[in-house]
Amino acid sequence: MSDSARSSAGILGMWGSLLLLLGFCGLQYVSTVVPEGQRAERLTSCTADGTPFASLEFSQWASTFHGTVDSVVAAHLKRRKSLQIPVRCAASGVRHTELPTDELEKLARALPPWKGRSNVSLFSGPSQAPDLSEDDIGPVLLEFLRTYECSMTEYQLEKQLQQSGESTAVFVLRANSERRTMREELQVARAAVGQTLVMLGGIGRLNPLLREFLCLERASIDLRNGLGLVAEASACLPRAWDARGTVRDLPSASQQ
Question: Is 148 helix (H, G, I), strand (E, B) or coil?
Answer without folding.
Answer: helix
